[in-house]
Write a structure and sequence with these properties.
six-stranded mixed beta sheet, alpha+beta, two-stranded antiparallel ribbon, globular, single chain, 14 strands, Nucleotidyltransferase, domain 5
Length: 348
């Protein structure tokens, strides 16, 4: 809980504040992409432990044929797109490779704008190159099982839905999420009203008599465990609200990184290196890092655009049941509206 009395904030000239905002994305890129590679290099481990450099050939997925162009969007040279997947972890027997969080982070080079686009896990579609239909959260698991490359298969699947060329993919498990927040001393969020999840956690063997997880209204500091419960809760609300909470935690994490001087704290850097090296996989190449750092210097992180696709007319999806399973489908019967929305995200 925050102290009731806080010392006045130190005045920061606008020029310094602007500089701090610009370097924040650099710090986040280091946390998500750069640090794991640096750690493996420093410890003499092979980059292949954390990187999946080579993609899956489309011909392999589609039985020797190339797919239609909607499966392979052309690259917009003014955008960089990173697909961030959150999973429980490979050791979890209860769907550990299913993606509970699917966020496309998009950066527009010419303006420095940044957007978070959340894709709901229950979105139902025909998987690329497959006869089967499934929820989009199974894409990473299917890619791992069939092609030994969940990163690229998930990238291709989300690119098909959004119409966006995806440059990079990173998959991070919940252990890293929790441990990094703890290492940074927690994150601060603001709630207009209390959040209560009383149908999901600490239940009996029948899934009943659950104990409530509560976050009070106002400014609250969440440690890693509480942040994880907050970001994963959905039984008392829905998956769309959960996606918003996930984005809220990511922004809170960005704010914490900005406030701490992470790059000048060797102990915290060392701890983050250790956490990420064990809990993240990404397909970014080490030779691409300098360019990403240069681009990050122009990022405007004070006004991140947030988008969540949901079961409303404005959300472009509707819910139904197929074979008794709850799923989401595009309102127009195809992904044209979602692709258009993603293409114009910086003009909305």
């Amino acid at each position: 809980m925050l102290d009731s009395i806080q010392p006045p904030k130190k005045y920061i000239p606008k020029t310094k504040e602007k500089k701090r905002v610009k370097i924040t994305l650099i710090v986040l890129l280091i946390l998500i992409l750069i640090i794991p590679g640096f750690y493996l290099f420093k410890t003499g481990m092979a980059f292949s432990k954390i990187l999946t450099i080579k993609g899956i050939a489309w011909e392999k997925i589609f039985g020797g044929q190339l797919p239609s162009l909607e499966y392979a969007p052309s690259k917009d040279e003014d955008r960089i797109n990173l697909l961030l997947l959150g999973i429980r972890g490979e050791g979890d027997p209860n769907g550990g490779l299913l993606s509970d969080g699917i966020i496309l982070i998009s950066f527009k080079k010419s303006t420095g704008q940044v957007a978070f686009i959340s894709i709901p896990r229950d979105l139902y579609l025909q998987m690329p190159g497959e006869a089967r239909y499934d929820k989009i959260n199974a894409a990473y698991a299917l890619g791992q099982e069939k092609y030994k490359n969940g990163l690229d298969y998930a990238k291709k699947t989300v690119a098909y839905v959004t119409g966006q060329y995806i440059d990079y993919t990173a998959v991070i498990n919940f252990n890293a999420f929790k441990d990094i927040i703890d290492l940074l001393g927690g994150v601060t969020i603001h709630l207009d009203k209390p959040f209560v999840e009383d149908k999901q956690w600490w239940c009996d063997e029948n899934g009943e008599n659950c104990q409530p997880f509560i976050v009070e209204a106002g400014d609250q500091i969440l440690n890693g465990e509480r942040a994880l419960y907050y970001a994963r809760s959905r039984f008392s609300s829905n998956d769309f609200d959960r996606a918003r909470r996930q984005q809220q935690i990511l922004i809170a994490l960005k704010n914490k990184v900005l406030s701490l001087g992470i790059l000048s704290d060797p102990l915290k850097i060392g701890g983050i290196i250790d956490i990420l090296s064990k809990n993240i996989k990404t397909d970014v190449g080490p030779w691409e890092i300098p360019q990403l750092i240069d681009l990050a210097k122009t990022a405007k992180l004070d006004k991140i655009i947030q988008r969540v696709y949901e079961n409303t007319p404005e959300g472009l999806l509707y819910d139904t049941k197929i074979n008794g399973i709850y799923v989401l489908l595009p309102t127009e019967g195809n992904f044209t509206a979602i692709r258009k929305d993603c293409a114009n995200i910086f003009n909305l």
